[in-house]
Amino acid sequence: MGSQSFSDALGVDYGALAPLLIVLGGACVSVLIEAVLPLERRRPAQLVFSLAVVVVALVAVVVRATSGAADVVVLAGSLSVDAPGLFLWGTLLALAIPSVLMLADRSVEPGGVFVADPEALAEAQEKVLAGGSRSPSGTGPDSRGAVARRGGGGGPDPATPPEMHTEIFPLVLFALGGMLAFSAANDLLTMFVALEVLSLPLYLLCGLARRRRLLSQEAAVKYFLLGAFASAFFLYGVALLYGYAGSVRLGDIAASAAGPLRSDTLLFAGLALLVVGLMFKASVGPFHTWTPDVYQGAPTPVTAFMAACTKVAAFGAILRVFTVAFGTTALEWRGVLWAVAIASMVIGTVLGITQTDLKRMVAYSSVAHAGFILIGCLAITPAGLSGTLFYLLAYGFTTIAILGLVSLVRSGDGEAGHLSGFAGLGQRSPVVAAALSFCLLALAGVPLTSGFTAKFAVFSAGLADGMAPLVIVGLVCSAIAAFFYLRVIVLMYFSDPAPDGPTVSLPGPMTTVAITLGVAVTLLLGVLPTAALEWAGAGSFLG
Amino acid sequence: MSPTNYLLLSALLFSIGTVGVLVRRNAIVVFMCVELMLNAVNLSLVTFSRINGSLDGQVMAFFVMVVAAAEVVVGLSIIMAIFRTRRTASVDDANLLKY
User: Fold this and answer.
1) Which helix (H) or strand (E) element contains residue A194?
2) Are A286 and A401 members of one domain?
3) Rounded Cα gap, residues A245 and A148, in angstroms
4) What residues 69-88 of chain B have any CB closer than 8 A to a CB of chain A?
5) Closest to A151 in 3D by CA, of A169, A141, A168, A137
6) Tens-digit pLDDT profile for chain A (543 aa)?
7) Residue A364: closest CA among chain B residues belongs to which residue?
8) What is the DSSP string of B63-98?
9) A262: number of Cβ within 10 Å
10) B26 is a domain residue
């Protein structure tokens, strides 16, 4: 066992870190693939490689979780690989598989959803249309070269869209690596760096849409400026907590709070600023302002990836911070977060009712769901922990399926989006309408869907921990929110389709697999939730 | 001089940055205000490092600088992209997504 003693000498537990190292290493190799391979071979190579990386990392997580290895804190206390952490890693990687499939799909949007430089593409397309007589050499960027090559080869072919850009794959892998680190971070500095590693690629991904460039770029600018603003708050909180405890390790902060009397100002000011940053990422309550704009403006596959995975990572970090660092002082700060949870649920449901765009509606619904999840986080009990983890898993798959289905309903210039486009969908495309109805019912929390089990787990944990008023608000908000989910279903089945309404495009194999996976997991977790609930409740955070 | 004064200065700089983000209209200036906030944090990290008598805070300041540099790269590229399509960097003109 030479390698064993070598890793012992360095003090790094590579077995525990394997999933994170695989994803981040894969991201670096993916950048190399981008640089080395010719354009036409890049897309299949990147797709296969990214999927392989995610699957191998997921297998590593499952092996680690089933091997019964002890919980460890690795890398000099900066990352904690424990049972809830492994559940979060498994959830993130499992959600990444349908996300990558949707990102890579080119059947719904000819040529793929992403494009890096629209002006170059437009120019190249014009050249192709003009007959492709000009020399392709010296045009520089890959996009021009690709189209010019095609034009020079088989003659002009305006039906063939220019090649999709593949930078998205390394960006997604880096974001995923950041999310893994964020949900396992055991000190606040690691958490901050992971926060930026997951955010920066997402800002870029938001701005890369092929259609409706202005909306996409506006979403990227808004997300970036507000995200940077929120991470500055997070960082100031870290600095104040460092001043309070003399360390940014979560366990040390808890120990300082339990120790001899110190200035509470630093502790609670630090916590407040930290929470602002974390709540922003999780799009909770009054810190949600970016959510609808970014969900609507970003390319739909990116919205799916962001909505599902960012939420899991952010709530994983929130759970860890609340439990490990502030569990001992919970009585003093919990009241404020009650207000945040109530604000989040009310804002999400009330504004959700007024929406006319389905993606914006999903965004406000995610704000309401963030409030529900926060109830589970505030119950600092094993039941709260397992309920929250289960909720994140269930919500992630349902959201990916919904956004996948939304991307199928298209009008002339891209996705329909507007609710009127969904009128009569039940007659025109019964399968899509049925799947969408099922997922919306899951978001509403109807029994036999994962949404019901998840809400039941979170609300009962909240009730058991003495948060009855909060749970009542949650139930009322769920009832109100059911209205706007059901409105879409009624529209799909009981309205006549508009004569010049949007069409439903037939999804390619990749989007089909992604949507099927989302719907299947939603159903499975609703009918047979026991196994997942048991795994979610298998352990507790390591301090 | 008491280290507390540096903490006050840091809080002041952070507040100036916050107000700047809220009131300025140009995306570049907003972004500069965010950078001011990050550097205010650096000042308090170093001061707390001095007060606590450990070097952790100073090392953290380096991490923050590296992250801020990475953020500049991404941020300016996004602002450049929107400037090229709209010919303006004003955040008030980015108003297509609302309600």
Assistant:
1) helix A188-206
2) yes
3) 61
4) 70-71, 74-75, 77-79, 81-82, 84-86
5) A137
6) 344 444 454 567 888 999 999 999 999 999 999 999 988 888 889 999 999 999 999 999 999 999 888 888 888 888 999 999 999 999 999 999 999 999 988 877 766 677 655 555 565 556 656 654 443 443 333 333 333 333 333 333 444 555 667 889 999 999 999 999 999 999 999 999 999 999 999 999 998 887 788 889 999 999 999 999 999 999 999 999 999 999 999 999 999 988 877 778 899 999 999 999 999 999 998 999 999 999 999 999 999 999 999 999 999 999 999 999 998 888 889 989 999 999 999 999 999 999 999 999 999 999 999 999 999 999 989 999 999 999 999 999 999 999 999 988 887 667 777 888 888 888 888 999 999 999 999 999 999 999 999 999 999 999 999 899 999 999 999 999 999 899 999 999 998 887 777 888 888 889 999 999 999 999 999 999 988 888 888 888 876
7) B99
8) HHHHHHHHHHHHHHHHHHHHHHHHS--BTTS--SS-
9) 14
10) yes
| Helices assigned H by DSSP within A379-505 | 382-406, 425-428, 430-444, 450-464, 468-494
> How many Å from the N-terminal Cα to the C-terminal Cα in chain A?
30
Domain that holds residue A52: 2-115+164-536
DSSP per residue, A227-250:
HHHHHHHHHHHHHHHHHHHSS-BH
Q: How many domains does chain A have?
A: 2
> A293, B64: Cβ pair inside 8 Å?
no
The conformation of residue A162, written as its DSSP 8-state character, comes to P
Q: What is the ipTM of this complex?
A: 0.96
Residue pair A507/A105 in contact (Cβ under 8 Å)? The answer is yes
Residue A428 sits in the same domain as residue A504: yes
Nearest chain A Cα to B62, which residue? A189
Q: What is the CATH number of the domain that holds B22?
A: 1.10.287.3510
The reply to whether A212 and A260 lie within a common domain is: yes
In a domain, A542, yes or no: no
CA of residue A253 relative to chain centroid, distance: 29
* Contact flag A207-B78 (C-beta cutoff 8 Å): yes
Q: Is residue A541 part of a domain?
A: no
In a domain, A227, yes or no: yes
Are A20 and A132 found together in one domain?
no
Min Cα distance B52 → chain A (Å) is 6
What is the reported pTM? 0.90
Cβ–Cβ below 8 Å for A293 and B97: yes
Neighbours of A441 (CB within 10 A): 22
Write the DSSP assignment of A488-535 as a string of letters.
HHHHHHHSPPPTT--EEPPP-HHHHHHHHHHHHHHHHHHH--HHHHHH
Q: How far apart are the first and last CA of chain B?
A: 51
The answer, for A247 touching chain B at a CB cutoff of 8 Å, is yes
Looking at the domain assignment, is residue A543 inside a domain?
no
State how far the Cα of A519 lies from the Cα of A497, in Å rounded to an integer.
25
Distance, in Å, from the CA atom of A351 to the CA atom of A354, rounded to the nearest integer, reads 5
